[in-house]
Design brief:
The structure holds two protein chains of two kinds. By secondary structure, chain A is an alpha/beta fold. Chain B has a domain of 59 residues. Chain B starts with a helix and ends with a helix. The chains are: A alpha/beta, B mainly alpha.
Chain lengths: 473, 111
């Protein structure tokens, strides 16, 4: 009779606690192996093993039941997870991560609600050291669920990517936050005399509203920060859920996720030279700035053939990709172009700005998909000193991250933002569909620089054309 | 478990997290995010506990959705991370024929 024996592990027993310790150790080891591209895949398997141990242990606990529902939930979730992870295109990774963030936050909020209802049904007082984490995880979980869904909608193009401004939004958000905190305190005071479920649900809804309103005004190019921040939120909410459920694996795992999200958020903000509150609350790019009034300045326009000649006879070429490369799905064509150049002995490197794309590391994944060796991917601080010795810099679908106004014009909205200094290269080719300004809504002086040639075309088409022309040279 | 013990665990884990994660290179930040998403799926445990406690339709529904969400996170997160990291692993066949890029073209062309 092993089955009933197994199904009766005491949650507080040393064996169960030991299993959870093994599980979270494997998470940490897994992330530790993730510090190098060659070992990261193995690290992921290690972390997944930890998860299997944690879930298996929990399934064997005393008090776990309702197997039909567990089968439905886990079966359904597994199917969705497998299909989604197989089908998703690498260009759509930001949406995918936003969505995963969302369901994670949603799960935490629901668990908090379920725990709350459990205590109500028992009619017992809820100890404050359980109730406070319940309230915390419910609010943060709900905010990140709805915030992530809005981020998903924006990235997927279901909602306009432009900042959506409502008058008095800051005030409204502030009031919502104050209201949520106040009601939570009221609930907390009632912890031993049956707190009102109506109020609890009101807070859940207010947090949902706050999640929506807080992400709606943030524009597409600030998404790397938003996604990282929501990641940190869901992590903290899971750690709180761990405290409410007395589960060490949950506390440690949630805290790891929270640290990761926090580190990424700060890294992204530094890379934009803006503070996190500024990104969240300023609605950058919402205002159609005066610079949009088209100045008639001359630009040099070239075709694929001329671009091919410039590139083929260069010694060193640096490719600067941006979100436009992802939109055009151009990563394979870009790699083909680089292959042609390397065949001719040209030195090719890729310069990746930390906030290029829509999530941290977005460009790196796309280029890895196209089989670009990770050694050729250079970080901003490593490539900038090389720029003066670079013959041609090719900007593909990037804009604001190359705008020299960031260092030259103290009045520019992006003043002080670290950029990839393509203007230092001997020549610059910008592949872009039009002269339209980037996300920041400001003109890019780079386009009018005498060293710059504009190739007006779709990124994928342009890269393919250039590759073909180089081959024919 | 006493609250203070849990807070101790939280604080120590935060320090470990910061130390380990700040060593992850920017190249791997996207897989890091999807992997931490998967680890976050551990909230599934909470869903299992809630469903185990429940005997009312609403609690059943809440718990089942939480389990569903948590499992999506775990399964989807680890699998998509595995898929991504597979792209960072150098294909051995491509190492030696540096001047035979035809093999590489075939790979890259398979969109």
């Amino acid at each position: 009779m092993t089955a009933p024996l197994l199904a009766a592990l005491d949650p507080q027993s040393a064996f169960v606690q030991a299993c959870y310790i093994v599980a979270f150790s494997l998470f940490i080891l897994g992330i530790r192996r993730g510090t190098h591209p060659t070992t990261a895949k193995q690290g992921n398997l290690i972390a997944a093993t930890g998860m299997v141990i944690a879930v298996a242990t929990t399934l064997a606990l005393k008090g776990i039941g309702n197997w039909g529902l567990i089968a439905i939930g886990m079966g359904g979730g597994a199917i969705v997870g497998v299909v989604a992870s197989r089908r998703v295109q690498m260009t759509a990774m930001p949406q995918m991560v936003a969505l995963y963030n969302g369901v994670g936050g949603g799960a935490v909020a629901l668990i908090a609600w379920g725990e709350f209802r459990h205590f109500l049904a028992l009619g017992e007082a809820i100890p404050l050291d359980t109730f406070v984490p319940i309230l915390f995880s419910m609010v943060i979980g709900s905010v990140s669920f709805w915030g992530s869904n809005i981020a998903f909608g924006k990235l997927q193009g279901l909602i306009p990517g432009q900042p959506v401004k409502v008058p008095g939004q800051q005030v409204l958000n502030g009031l919502l936050l104050v209201g949520i905190v106040t009601v939570c305190i009221v609930l907390g005071f009632d912890h031993d005399s049956g707190p009102s479920q109506g109020l609890f649900i009101a807070v859940l809804i207010a947090a949902a509203l706050l999640g929506n309103l807080f992400v709606l005004p943030i524009g597409g190019a600030d998404m790397p920060v938003v996604i990282s921040l929501l990641n940190a939120f869901t992590g903290l909410s899971a750690a709180a859920a761990g405290i409410e459920l007395d589960n060490t694996a949950l506390i440690v795992a949630g805290t790891l996720v929270g640290s990761s999200g926090t580190i990424l958020t700060l890294a992204m903000a530094t890379a934009m030279n803006r503070s996190v509150p500024n990104i969240l609350f300023a609605g950058f790019g919402a205002l159609p700035t005066g610079a949009a009034e088209a100045e008639e300045r001359p630009v040099t326009s070239i075709g694929a053939q001329d671009a091919a000649i410039k590139l083929a006879y260069a010694d060193s070429v640096v490719i600067v990709p941006g979100y436009g490369m992802a939109v055009a799905q151009a990563q394979h064509a870009v790699k083909e172009m680089a292959n042609e150049l390397e065949k001719r002995g040209v030195d090719v490197a890729y310069a990746i700005h930390p906030v290029a794309g829509r999530m941290p590391g977005h460009m790196n994944v796309l280029l890895a998909e196209a089989d670009v060796p990770y050694e050729e991917l250079k970080e901003m601080d490593d490539i900038n000193p090389e720029m003066p010795h670079t013959d041609v810099a090719v900007v593909i679908g990037a804009n604001d991250v190359t705008n020299p106004a960031a260092k030259d014009d103290p009045n520019s909205p992006i003043a002080g933002m670290p950029i990839i200094e393509v203007d230092e290269a001997q020549q610059v080719i910008v592949i872009k569909r039009s002269l339209s300004p980037g996300f920041a809504g400001i003109d890019n002086d780079l386009f009018y620089n005498e060293k710059t040639s504009m190739l007006f075309s779709d990124a994928k088409q342009a890269a393919a054309d250039i590759a073909a022309e180089i081959e024919n040279l | 478990m006493p609250l203070i013990t849990e807070i101790t665990i939280f604080v120590l884990a935060a320090f470990v997290g910061f130390e380990v994660i700040s060593k992850v290179p920017t190249t791997l930040h996207t897989p890091l995010m999807s992997q931490t998403n998967a680890i976050h799926g551990i909230v599934l445990l909470g869903g299992l506990i809630v469903v185990g406690l429940s005997n009312f339709w609403l609690d059943n529904l809440i718990g089942t959705i939480a389990i569903f969400f948590g499992t999506i996170n775990i399964v989807g997160g680890f699998m998509v991370t595995d898929r991504m990291l597979g792209m960072f692993v150098r294909k051995p066949k491509k190492e030696e024929p540096a001047e035979k890029p035809d093999a590489g073209d075939g790979d890259a062309g398979a969109e």
